[in-house]
Amino acid sequence: MIAQIIFQVYQEYGEKTALSLIQKFGSIENLYEKVEQGESGLKGKQKENIENNRDLAYLSKTLGTINLQVPIAENLEDFKIEEWNKPKVLEIFKELNFNRYIERFSLQEDKKEEIKDLFETIDKSQEEIIELVKKQKEMIFYFETKEDNNQEKIIKEQICGLSIFDNQNKKAMYIKFQQENDLQDWKEILEEETIKKISINFNKIYILLKQVNIEIEGMDYDIAIASYILDPTNNKLEIDKLIEQYLGIDVPSYIGEEKQMNLFELGIQEEGISKEKQKRNSFYSYAIFKIKEITSLKLEEIEAKELFYKIDMPTIKVLSDMQWNGMYVDKGELEKFGEELTVQLESLTKEIYQMAGEEFNINSTKQLGEILFEKMQLPIIKKTKSGYSTDVDVLEKLKREDPIINKILEYRQLMKLNSTYVEGLKPYINPKTKRIHSFFHQTITATRKNQFN
């Protein structure tokens, strides 16, 4: 056995020699017995090493030998494979974000069965659903949207479907809008302040509805904002991610499974709308309800409900109005300013070429580096893997070395103005309102660049 190889011999001569000794003498004990009796046949350095490292040899054997005498209280039956403790495994997998394994090992089966029993066949018209919402004074909903390339819109999408969860009767309802004007049937409810609205991304919903002349009121609970308050570092606030986080369900694989197609029996069916799409959107309205229940309790636990209802929820309307109103930009003046910058840039370019003694691409770090540090022999401040560094810090240190540096710095400033604040802003000017409608995110902690749509 390799476990019985003499330590020093193995180290000195390698595995082959050590194994040959074990094979020849049968064991370490027999080897040392033959050495003591002078019958080993070993000579020279090899014999000396074996004699000098007797203790190490026996220690190696002890360490490599399995002790069969260790007392074990358990019997063989105790080591048989048993069913997992699924709730505990699920808890660990969630903590480690092993989401694929949760689905692969069917750790959510109990939850699937629970959800399956919540839905019944619904046979109600849109008018009956509207009356139901009015009576219950609560609207738990999810808007389905699709892309709309109308350049006059602030958000280039339109609402094409609506799912509602009836909490009292535990039923999901889905309505498909054939055209955007169909939303007007819901105008009265959406504008009624006494009907509490529970959904996700109200800042987006607010703008989408204003685009069709509906002023939503009664925005009571946004599950994304509630989740953000609970964990400001969480940047995964999309509906699918929140469902995964709070309900432990991977939506794409869950909804897409054929064997689960009977989860939702939808009463309002429309031709051309896949059952899967209806099921997904109806499931979203149910998920919003469940996540609201969970996050509401958690907000209470950390004493943040007052913050949520008095600060964060009212802020939605403030920020949405800011986006809706936008910032007026005189496109003509902006273009005029751009033309002035272009003239200045052309003049600076000629000056730089004259100072350098040749034409080159001023915006190319490589070419600029070659001009400054090889042709003009300016001091090299910093080098990179690709060549010479010509960043702002380097150029600032070189300002006294040659007048060309100030011209290059000025050129870069004007280029930045033109590309970012002239050419960069023009595409975001709404052709109808003549304004730039910025997004104001209230669920982001880190500083980020402005985003426009």
What does this structure look like?
It is a single chain. The chain is of the alpha/beta class and 453 residues long. It has 20 helices and nine strands. The strands form three sheets. It has a five-stranded mixed β-sheet. Strand 2 and strand 3 form a beta hairpin. Helix 1 packs across helix 2 (15-25), helix 11 (202-210) packs parallel to helix 16 and helix 12 packs across helix 15. The chain is flat and about 105 Å long.
- N-to-C terminal Cα separation, in Å? 72 Å
Main β-sheet, spatial strand arrangement: 3-2-1-4-5
Q: Compute the gyration radius: what is it?
A: 37 Å
What is the helix/strand order? HHHHHHHHHEEEHEHEHHHHHEHHEEHHE
Uncertain runs are 1-8, 117-121, 257-272, 447-453
CATH superfamily of the largest domain: Ribonuclease H-like superfamily/Ribonuclease H
Question: Which structural class should the secondary elements be placed in?
Answer: alpha/beta
Shape, please?
flat
Number of strands: 9
Q: What's the number of helices?
A: 20
Total number of domains: 3
Question: Which whole number gives the mean pLDDT?
Answer: 83
Report the biggest beta sheet as strand number plus sense, adding barrel if it closes.
5 strands, mixed
The CATH architecture of the largest domain: 2-Layer Sandwich
Could you provide a short overview of the structure?
Helix content is 50%, strand content 9%. The chain is built from 20 helices and nine strands. The strands form three sheets. The protein has a five-stranded mixed beta sheet.
